[in-house]
Amino acid sequence: MRLVLIGGPANPALAEGVGRALGMRLADCEVGHFPDGEIHVEVRETVRDADVYLLQPTAPPIETHLLQLLLLADASRRTGTARVTAVIPYFGYARQDRHASEREAVGARVVADMLPTAGIERGVAVDLHTTALEGAFGVPLEHLTATPVLAEALRPPYRERGVVLAPDAGAAKLAERWARVLNVPVAVVHKTRVGGEAVRTQGLAGDVRGRKPLIVDDMISTGGTLAGAITAALEAGAVPDVVVAVSHGLFVGPAAERLEGLPITQLMVTDTVAGTAPHGVAVEVVSVAPLLAHAISRLHDGRSLSDLILHA
Ligand code: R5P
User: Fold this and answer.
1) Average pLDDT of the segment spanning 243-254
2) How much is the pTM?
3) Which atom from ligand 1 is nearest to the alpha carbon of 196?
């Protein structure tokens, strides 16, 4: 069965990188709009009987990128592919994984349910907001982690008197994984979200006094969580020399101004989301292209992904 890689428009550089790592070109396809604004897609070469991998993070503008993904999947399967796998390095709506208050939609479930409707038979994602989200997918999901890729980019030596800091309870498991690898203690910030852009922090659990924090999280969106975590750490006596390792850098809204001036010595994100460096903030972007290429190649050959996937 022939392997075909299609790169949607949400992150062409990452798709090219995956293609290079696999030693193959991207399939020819066109994504545009009709005059009334409807999205139009066309796969311009035969993908009949092929094992198709469709790479498209559903990053902002989320609805556009999601619909492009679904239409590309539909266009592929209608030409008789053997299988369509959606590689969604960043999965939008992941934070809407439960009712935070009454009468809210569980958006993550709604979006996950759309995938099989468009003919997607399997998904590949990187560092979803929670591992529990895996259960929302009605198709088999390979949940990869970028932690080893980010850990490798950590500037040595890490570190005398370090502490891994989870900026909220949701990141505690991730922080524990990092701490095991680095052999340093863990601390967890007590955070409450009070709005889409605003969070409140009330101290932290663990000892950060005299230690250099390494803050780990699944994403930076508006930067509120990160800024709050740094403030909480400094108030608790941490050294103002902070390293940040985050899988998805969205940097929306007030992110740039919130991060400017914070005592961050290294800020790393991966390239799951395109164009992630906000003006005035030094961001190191680490590529997940080799990770995705390994996953695709092994899925195509029916080999194990055990060392690439997230074990909770
Ligand atoms: C929340 O639970 C997530 O893991 C992130 O910490 C959060 O979504 C980041 O958002 P922001 O940067 O807007 O605070």
Assistant:
1) 96
2) 0.95
3) 13
- Asked whether the predicted pLDDT for residue 191 surpasses 70, the reply is yes
Q: Let me know if 191 is a catalytic residue.
A: yes
Structure tokens at 97: 């994984």
The DSSP 8-state label assigned to residue 155 in this structure reads P
Least confident of 36-40, 159-163, 264-268, 301-305: 159-163
Whole-number Cα distances in Å, 302 to 204, 298, 312? 44, 6, 23
Mutate to test the pocket of ligand 1, among 193, 216, 218, 252 (most ligand atoms within 8 A of CB): 218
**Is residue 160 exposed (0-12), middle (13-18) or buried (19+ Cβ within 10 Å)?**
exposed
Expressed in angstroms and rounded, the spacing between residue 171 Cα and the centre of ligand 1 is 10
Is the CB of 206 inside a 6 Å radius of any atom of ligand 1? Answer: no
CA distance 86 to 276: 22
Alpha carbons 139 and 121: distance in angstroms, whole number: 6
Going by alpha carbons, the residue nearest to atom 5 of ligand 1 is 219
- The single residue of 191, 211, 258, 294 carrying the catalytic annotation is 191
Q: How far is CA 211 from CA 155, 214, 224, 242, in A?
A: 17, 10, 22, 10
pLDDT for 258 equals: 94
Q: What is the DSSP string of 31-83?
A: EEE-TTS-EEEEE-S--TT-EEEEE----SSHHHHHHHHHHHHHHHHTTT-SE
CA distance 260 to 54: 36
User: Measuring CA to CA, which residue among 305, 244, 306, 298 is closest to residue 276?
Assistant: 244
Mean pLDDT of 159-185: 92
pLDDT of residue 159: 63
